[in-house]
Amino acid sequence: MAKLLDDTLANTVQDTHRERQHTRIDRTRRRVGPVNTFAGIRRLIVTDIQDDYLTCRTWDGVTKGDTDVYVAKPYFLQKTPHDGETRRGITASSYSAASATRIMTRDADAETENQIVIPSYAANDEIFAMSAATGVTTTTEDDELDVVLIDLNNDARTWAHNL
Length: 163
What we know:
By secondary structure, the protein is of the alpha+beta class. The protein has one domain (2-26, 44-161). Helix content is 17%, strand content 38%. It contains one helix and 13 strands, in the order H-E-E-E-E-E-E-E-E-E-E-E-E-E. It has one helix at residues 2-29; strands spanning 37-38, 41-49, 53-58, 69-72, 86-87, 90-96, 101-106, 112-118, 126-131, 137-139, 144-146, 149-151, 158-161. The strands form three sheets. Strands 2-3-4-12-9 form a five-stranded mixed beta barrel. A five-stranded antiparallel sheet has the order 5-6-7-8-13, with no helix packed on it. A two-stranded antiparallel sheet has the order 10-11. Mean pLDDT is 82; it is low at 20-37.
């Protein structure tokens, strides 16, 4: 009798595990939201670079969308919150979105370091973004818009010393 119970329990555990695996696989294959989103993440292609955000188009790997989509850069890559800001005795200044550069100045001795974002953003870069309250706005011909997507920065862009 104990052997029968052990076998029954083992089969039940295996069946439950198998069901969970199938559920997990089905859930990961499900598309959520509009085309080009997967669990709220959007696949986009960069068309233009501004100080605090990127202008992008939807992208499915083949077809580029027709409508501009605005995506905030990661917080520490944005100009507005940091230009002229001093952190731990170092002041950031002279940001340039076009060349992805800035100058950092140590307040104690006025020594400067030129920095560059690596890898830099460029037109036709593919990025992934998700919805977020970014605090970034953009002005279009008709209106001021809140930028409600943020770059997930899966390319690990960061500031680095520019040699």
